[in-house]
């Protein structure tokens, strides 16, 4: 009985069956629900009902985390992955009410659950033709969105208790967007050395990801042209030879006209 239960868990979390894929998509939906929950509750007073829902989400994430560790082949490697650390932060933040309001600032760290999105990339390539066609654009957009939501969560967690300008998640999101787009209206600023260093990180990494998205939208770094010899599909826009087999390729680009 125990062996069958373990086999079923391994199939759901690591298998390649339709049931396993549906299960993992379900976990992604759960992650998105938790993020919507924390954003919505940043605007209202935390009532006993909200704290009870915190506990429910925390127990579910703890259960998911325990199963992931149990089914992992290399458990030490799994425990040091970014998505695993995100799970731990999410669990602590959901269960924080048990330790009192002192750990309340951790609530927003549940947005780190977005890191699980990257584990579904291979499946998205198989399931959705539109994803395969625009994969570079989708990945660049996901990178930017994950950065925005995680950074916004950190800013809110670090600033909302003592910065009068950061009252809720929307204020932190507003600061993140204006900073990474270098608009900088100046009506919201982060205080202290930590705040300034975080602002620098938002500008440096955020602008880089924003420009990357703009590049793939308006000037893709790769073009689709199937090599007649080896079948390689993606090539540099200015390539004259296939970098896999060396065969001459004839890619129609603006530079050829």
Automatic annotation (TrEMBL):
Q: How does it sit in the membrane?
A: Multi-pass membrane protein
- Which is an annotated Pfam family here? Ion_trans
Cellular component terms per the entry's GO annotation = voltage-gated potassium channel complex
Q: Principal place where this protein is found?
A: membrane
Carries keyword Membrane? yes
What is this protein identified as? Voltage-gated potassium channel Kch
Q: Name one GO molecular function term.
A: voltage-gated potassium channel activity
Q: What InterPro entries does its record include?
A: Ion_trans_dom, VG_K_chnl
Q: Per UniProt, which keywords does this protein have? A: Ion channel, Ion transport, Membrane, Potassium, Potassium channel, Potassium transport, Transmembrane, Transmembrane helix, Transport
What range(s) does the Ion transport domain occupy? Answer: 25-210
Q: Which residues cross the membrane?
A: 25-44, 50-67, 137-158, 196-214
Listed GO biological process terms? action potential
* Ion transport keyword on record: yes
Report the subcellular localization: Membrane
């Amino acid at each position: 009985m125990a062996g069958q239960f373990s086999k079923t868990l391994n199939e759901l979390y690591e298998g390649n069956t339709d049931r396993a894929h549906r299960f993992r998509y379900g976990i992604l939906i759960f992650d998105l629900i938790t993020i919507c929950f924390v954003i919505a509750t940043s605007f209202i007073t935390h009532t006993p009902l909200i704290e009870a829902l915190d506990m429910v989400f925390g127990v579910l994430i703890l259960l998911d985390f325990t199963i992931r560790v149990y089914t992992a082949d290399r458990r030490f490697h799994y425990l040091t992955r970014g998505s695993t650390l995100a799970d731990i932060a999410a669990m602590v933040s959901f269960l924080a009410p048990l330790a009192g309001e002192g750990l309340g600032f951790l609530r927003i760290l549940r947005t780190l659950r977005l890191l699980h999105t990257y584990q579904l990339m291979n499946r998205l390539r198989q399931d959705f033709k539109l994803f395969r066609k625009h994969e570079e654009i989708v990945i660049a957009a996901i990178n930017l969105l994950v950065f925005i939501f995680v950074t916004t969560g950190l800013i809110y967690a670090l600033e909302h208790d003592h910065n009068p300008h950061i009252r809720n998640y929307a204020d932190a999101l507003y600061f993140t967007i204006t900073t990474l787009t270098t608009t900088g209206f100046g009506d919201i600023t982060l205080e202290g050395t930590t705040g300034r260093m975080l602002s620098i990180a938002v500008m440096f990494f955020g602008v880089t990801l924003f420009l990357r998205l703009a590049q793939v939208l308006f000037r893709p770094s790769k073009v689709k042209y199937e090599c007649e010899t080896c079948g390689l599909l993606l090539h540099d826009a200015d390539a004259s030879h296939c970098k896999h087999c060396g065969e001459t390729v004839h890619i129609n680009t603006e530079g050829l006209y």
